[in-house]
Amino acid sequence: MLMEDYNDLVVILGYSIFLVLAVSMFLTFRKNNIQFIRARIFLKKDFIAKSFFYIIISGSLLSLHEFIHINTEKMLIPESYDQIAESIGALFLLFLVFWAYSWRKLIHENTRIVSYQKTG
To answer: Mean pLDDT across the chain, nearest whole number?
Structure first.
């Protein structure tokens, strides 16, 4: 199997995981009290730093991916760099999934606490 096939597989799996996490977050988020989620974010200082880190790294990797891809199409850099751009695109997706997972984890913690308070 070629490296391109592995990259395609990673991208398909990554987008699938991201979509599942995003839909799960959206459905859970609608049921929760927004004030409670804000309080959880405020109390978890490391959450804000991690979230910011994941977004900055994802954005930087996406920019680098597009920069290399555009320059290989215009033949300003060798075509062999296009494979590197595809790997960088997969890394971008990985950090995006980390970001979505951290948000999903925070929102689902909130759901467990709220449901416990309603029953207990």
So the answer is: 83
Q: In the prediction, which pLDDT does 33 show?
A: 76
81: Cα separation from own chain's centroid: 24
pTM equals 0.77
Write out the DSSP string of the chain. --HHHHHHHHHHHHHHHHHHHHHHHHHHHHHS-HHHHHHHHHH-HHHHHHHHHHHHHHHHHHHHHHHHHHHHHTTSS-TTHHHHHHHHHHHHHHHHHHHHHHHHHHHHHHHHHHHHHHH-
By the 8 A CB rule, do 36 and 114 touch? yes
Residue 95 CA from chain centroid, whole number: 5
The rounded distance, in Å, linking the Cα atoms of 15 and 26 is 16
Task: Let me know the angle formed at the C-alpha of 66 by 95 and 100, rounded to the nearest 5 degrees.
Answer: 20
pLDDT at residue 120 greater than cutoff 70: no
**Amino acid found at 28:** T
